[in-house]
Amino acid sequence: QVQLVESGGGLVQPGGSLKLSCAASGSNSGIGTMGWYRQSPGKERELVASAPRGGTANYADSVKGRFTISRDYVKNTVSLQMDSLKPDDTGVYYCNAVTAIRGTNYWGRGTQVTVSS
C-alpha cells in the first residue's frame, strides 16, 4: 500500500505561481511513475504531468512551458511548480503513483487550486 498526501493548493491571481507537493509513504520502493492529475468543474480528470522513475517527464499540451514536475527519490516526494497560471488551471489536483510491476494506481485526496482575480 502507498499513501499519498498533497499540499500547496490555494487561491492565486492569473499570472501567479503555486507549488504543489506530494509525499508518499508506505511501500514506496515499488513506485514507478508519479504524477499529477486535475479535475476541473464539469470536466473529467486529466493528466497534467507525470515523471517516470528514471525517465523523461510528460506534460499536457495546455501546461507545457508553464509547469515543471520534479521528484525527490530520497524523500519520496513529487512536486509541481506551476507558473503563469490561468483561470483554466482551476481545479482539484490529485497526486498519483503507479507501481512498477503490477501497475496499481494510488491517489491522494486532492488539493484545490483556484486561479481567479
Summarize the structure.
This protein has 117 residues and is mainly β. Helices cover 0% and strands 56% of the residues.
Which oligomeric form is depicted?
single chain
Mean pLDDT: 94
- Structure annotation, total helices: 0
User: Roughly what fraction of the amino acids lie in strands?
Assistant: over 45%
Biggest pleated-sheet summary: 7 strands, mixed
Rg (CA only): 14 Å
Query: Could you give the distance between the termini?
Result: 40 Å
Number of strands: 11
Low-confidence stretches: none
Query: What percentage of residues falls in helices of 4 or more residues?
Result: under 10%
**Pairing-aware structural class of the strands and helices?**
mainly beta
Name the descriptors:
56% strand, mainly beta, 11 strands, 4-stranded antiparallel β-sheet, 117 residues
Could you describe the 3D structure shown?
There is one protein chain. By secondary structure, the chain is mostly beta strands. The protein is 0% helix and 56% strand. The protein is built from no helices and eleven strands. The protein has strands spanning 2-7, 10-12, 18-26, 31-39, 46-52, 58-59, 67-72, 77-82, 91-99, 105-107, 111-115. The strands form two sheets. Strands 2, 4, 5, 6, 9, 10 and 11 form a seven-stranded mixed beta sheet that branches. Strand 4 and strand 5 (46-52) form a beta hairpin. It is globular. The mean pLDDT is 94.
